[in-house]
Amino acid sequence: MPPNPTLEKIRKSQILDAALRILSAQGVNSVTLDDVARASGLSKGGLVHYFPSKDILFTEAFKEFFNRVFTRGLETMNQCDHPMEKLLSFLWILNRDDPDVNTGYPLLFDGMALAAHDPAYGSLFRDWFENWVVLLKVALKEGIEAGVFAVDDVDGTARTISAMYQGVATRWYLDPETHSTEWAVSFLRQAVTRLVGCDSEHSRGVSAPRKASTIGKRTDGRACLARGRKE
Q: Does residue 199 sit in the same domain as residue 89?
């Protein structure tokens, strides 16, 4: 009987979903193919039909994880009209009530540990970083063209913003007692707006950080937004 492409796609998605859940919960070093098979509701033989080895499965699972997070970031940014809103649209990564956030950080940190020793995972992370830089550059160029950003080095600024998000988010997740959501959101709002040349007006117009459940909504960069609309 010939393979059914639709069924194969469903089965692979089913396995990857299960792998991501269990990898996040237990960690890469503790998960076996048997664990993933049980979590996905398949036999081990059924699993290895689609993913012949643990290395192949885990690599594909991390690729899927990176793709899902990046797709969400892209979709969230595209919902924003103003360039400053776009640069600050990724604050949803600081919402502890978000299922993607709770699942994602353990996966991210495990992936980083693998990348330190495995060139294949290192390549995944390089691509991941570059994708975010490209996305941020789109918003920066829009802001420059609209006359609301004062940025000379678009590539360098995009890399700096990406690094700020990652660094702040890491501390926020690993040390919440001294790196609160309020601190993380406030710091990123101020740092990003100052970096792109909106510091003086933005600092007068920015409101106090909202609760985590509202992070990612269009409430940031009010002074820069007002300036952009006037122009």
A: yes
